[in-house]
Design goal:
By secondary structure, the chain is mostly helical. It folds into two domains: 8-260; 264-476, no CATH class. It is 75% helix and 2% strand. The chain is built from 20 helices and four strands. The strands form two sheets. The protein has a two-stranded antiparallel ribbon. The protein has a two-stranded antiparallel sheet with strand order 3-4. β1 and β2 (67-69) form a beta hairpin. α14 (317-342) packs antiparallel against α17. The chain starts with 10 loop residues before the first helix and ends with a helix. Residues 122-415 form the NADH:quinone oxidoreductase/Mrp antiporter transmembrane domain. Its EC number is 7.1.1.-. NDH-1 is composed of 14 different subunits. Subunits NuoA, H, J, K, L, M, N constitute the membrane sector of the complex. The chain crosses the membrane at residues 6-26, 38-55, 75-95, 102-120, 126-145, 157-180, 200-225, 237-258, 270-289, 296-315, 327-345, 366-388, 400-421, 441-460. This is NADH-quinone oxidoreductase subunit N.
Length: 476
């Protein structure tokens, strides 16, 4: 007699799926008039899911081992839900004013978020692929959402083609791993490679899996879609791509390597070290010549994923703890930076050139301060939150004796500081350009909350670090 799986651990995902179905029906009946209602419904769903996630306790595996609810998953789901909710708030007035808003947008964001949460909690390769495809199919549409804009359509097409390729590579790698271990369960794979001597076939499968997940976190050499999609997609969509999906993809990456391949640490560590060094270097040097603020943030995102991978390369609880701390701080700084970009409007038209920020300190002091603080934080200037983020991942790398990786990270941080501080110089020292329009209330709210979060974490990082430490232990 078969027993029904325990649905409790997956309750946040189930509630959001039922909510998404209701939103589709309501939107189909009411048409474009339902847009505002559906935005509020999406935010309510995210809030409800957040409460359900925070109520979870312990470590529970259900659905025949395909789904796991633990401290690590809860921590990363909280970040993902916050990023998705912020994307809805940032998008509301912008897309409506731009004429691109349709009622499907909040529904697609909810569906993508369900896929992200499934990715975070997947504990076998089939569950992982189901969550990944649910997220990806929604994001393909979101990337090209402004369908009357050729740049947005081009961004969507590039993301779709390269995303389909990466999904195929992940699936091929998963099939090889299954072929050489006889199981798709992370626990079963870990048992199969327990001896620490995986065969050549399993290593090839591992490389293909790594290639598939590298695309999702936009790590080199699978980063090529990021600058074009960030620049071509509507700014709130770029903010969404830079926040919630990155949280889920990094959580998925950590769980695969630490959960399924602990016995093959030295094999996958080399892959992660290469991706980390290449991402940090490319992100640092390629951003120097950028004049478009969204392209610059795209290269910054690539570099930041490289820094986060430094913690994963350590393969230790301290390393995972560093990754989680880094992602939380990266989320806040990125949302604040994109909120500033959304406030760069003159006469109702968005401007994206970095030179347009000239003299911002004389026209909008608090926006200038917030933008500058985010740039200092992303550059890793002490004592701001970004400094602590890098400190923890570099410390984990040094403890794991990955000295070269840590040194390269510090050097690329210094290079990256050049283009971050150049923006601060433009804001405070260049001749003033005309003032920007007054930003939307929702955008100002996201900027204020994110900036306060970064400011508090700059001087009180211990609560976040302790929470990450407790969550990281659930993986080991």
């Amino acid at each position: 007699m078969t027993t029904l799986p325990a649905f409790g651990p997956a309750l946040p995902e189930i509630v959001m799926a039922l909510g998404a179905i209701a939103m589709v029906l309501y939107g189909a009946i009411q048409g474009e008039r339902s847009t505002r209602t559906l935005e509020i419904a999406a935010l309510a769903l995210f809030a409800l899911a957040l409460v359900l996630v925070l109520r979870g306790e312990g470590k529970v595996v259900t659905f025949n081992g395909a789904f796991i609810a633990d401290g690590f998953g809860r921590f990363m789901k909280v970040l993902t839900l916050i990023g998705a909710a912020a994307a809805i708030v940032l998008s509301a007035d912008f897309l409506r004013r731009d004429g691109a808003m349709r009622f499907e947008f909040p529904i697609l964001v909810v569906l993508a978020t369900i896929g992200m949460m499934m990715m975070i909690s997947a504990s076998d390769l089939i569950g992982l692929y189901v969550g990944l495809e649910l997220q990806s199919l929604a994001l393909y549409v979101v990337a090209a959402f402004d369908r009357d804009n050729p740049r947005s359509t081009e961004a969507g097409l590039k993301y779709f083609v390269l995303g389909a390729l990466s999904s195929g590579m992940l699936l091929y790698g998963s099939s090889m791993v299954y072929g050489f271990t006889g199981t798709v369960s992370y626990a079963g794979i870990a048992e199969a490679v327990k001896g620490g001597h995986p065969g050549i076939g399993l290593i090839i499968g591992l490389v293909f899996v790594a290639a598939g997940v590298a695309f999702k976190i936009s790590a080199v050499p699978f980063h090529m879609w990021t600058p074009d999609v960030y620049e071509g997609a509507p700014t709130p969509v770029a903010a969404f791509f830079a926040s919630a999906p990155k949280m889920a993809a990094m959580a998925m990456t950590v769980r695969i390597f630490v959960g399924a391949f602990p016995g093959a640490l030295h094999d996958w560590q080399q892959i992660i070290v290469f991706m980390a060094i290449a991402s940090m270097a490319l992100g640092a040097f390629a951003a120097i010549g950028q004049t478009n603020i969204k392209r610059l943030l795209a290269y910054s995102s690539i570099a930041n994923m490289g820094y986060a991978l430094v913690g994963l390369a350590a393969g230790t609880p301290a390393g995972v703890q560093g990754v989680m701390t880094y992602m939380a701080i990266y989320l806040a700084t990125t949302l604040a930076a994109f909120a500033c970009v959304l406030m760069m409007n003159r006469n109702g038209k968005p401007v994206e050139d970095i030179g347009e920020l000239a003299g911002l300190s004389r026209n909008n002091g608090w926006m200038a301060f917030a933008m500058s603080m985010m740039m200092f934080s992303l550059a890793g200037i002490p004592p701001l939150a970004g400094f602590w983020a890098k400190w923890y991942v570099f410390l984990a790398a040094i403890e794991a004796k990955l000295y070269v990786l840590a040194v390269v990270g510090v050097i690329t941080s210094v290079v990256g500081a050049y283009y971050y501080l150049r923006i601060v110089k433009v804001i405070y020292f260049d001749d003033a350009k005309p003032a920007f329009d007054k930003g939307d209330a929702g955008v100002r709210g996201v900027l204020l909350i994110s900036a306060l979060f970064v400011l508090v974490l700059s001087f009180l990082p211990a609560p976040l670090f302790d929470s990450a430490a407790a969550a990281a232990k659930s993986l080991f």
